[in-house]
Write a structure and sequence with these properties.
By secondary structure, the chain is mainly alpha-helical. The chain has one domain. Strand 1 and strand 2 form a beta hairpin. The radius of gyration is 17 Å and the shape is elongated. The N and C termini lie far apart (about 45 Å).
Length: about 110
């Protein structure tokens, strides 16, 4: 069974579900945020101004990359669970932190544009 150790452990199951929920919620928030101009401000600096412009698909690319990182973290967590539970918890909770950071970054992109 895939991810059997994550599904058995209560803390890992809750943290993994919350991180996936936050990531999909971020995608929904960005997709329903409204029509944007052709170019989005993806990065700006207080000294140099706008550094990076991009399209909507680049933001979704960040979301897909975060989903891939979550999948790798969950696989490593499941693989290492019988040997070292601390590393397993570390991988899953770092994925939760990654989801929160991606939510923050996408919220800032929506706010700036």
């Amino acid at each position: 069974m895939i991810l059997k150790h994550i599904l058995k452990d209560r803390y890992l199951r809750i943290a993994a579900a919350i991180s996936i929920f936050i990531l999909f919620l971020t995608a929904l928030i960005f997709s329903f945020a409204g029509p944007f101009n052709k170019r989005l401000i993806l990065h700006f600096d207080s000294y140099n101004g706008i550094d990076l412009l991009g399209g909507e698909w680049q933001v979704f690319g960040v979301l897909f990359a975060a989903l891939a990182i979550l999948a790798i973290n969950f696989y490593l967590s499941d693989f290492l669970y019988p040997r070292d539970r601390f590393l397993s918890y570390l991988f899953v909770f770092s994925g939760l932190l990654l989801s929160v950071l991606i939510l923050t970054a996408v919220s800032v992109i929506i706010y700036v544009n």
